[in-house]
Amino acid sequence: MSLIGNNLLNDIVKNHEISDPSKILCKLHEEIVLTLKKGEHESDTVDGMDITLCSINTTTNLLEFSSTGRPLVLVRNNEIKKYKIGKHPLGLVTKKEVKFEKENIQLLPGDTFYIYTDGFCDQFGGPEDEKYLDSNFEKLLLKIQNQKMNERAKTLETEIENWLGNQAQIDDILVIGIR
Questions:
Q1: pLDDT tens for residues 114-129?
Q2: Which of 91, 99, 115, 163 is the most exposed place for a label (fewest CB within 10 A)?
């Protein structure tokens, strides 16, 4: 699903020249449904793709984003604000109308925002062999807020390795942080 999504996403942005995150997700959803030949029949399995898509105007520092199932986390003044605006996975056909909302955030100096897959938070490990969880991940983001970006990456990597212990990694892990 990721390969299909990536190829379609590149086509939508480059060839169709769409830059609005909610319009990109709308087009991406349509194209995934067509590619997988799902037609108009309701999906019998919950097989879709979650994504958070961002566009930043580097002149005005305005961040536009749209999401399906994954949050955007903003760290500002040592506080976390979690934005999650879409629940409908891309490619999932249901009887409900599919609509992707867009949110705008005016970025300020010192802000950091993160988008990430569910792999970090869903990873089993620790002393009780349990999931890492979103709440622990958000606490970690606050804890590392004053580190340089390359140090944050190392801290995240060390944290998940320590959490895993002897457990096998069960999912992809991707964390993107932008300051």
A1: 999 999 999 999 999 9
A2: 99
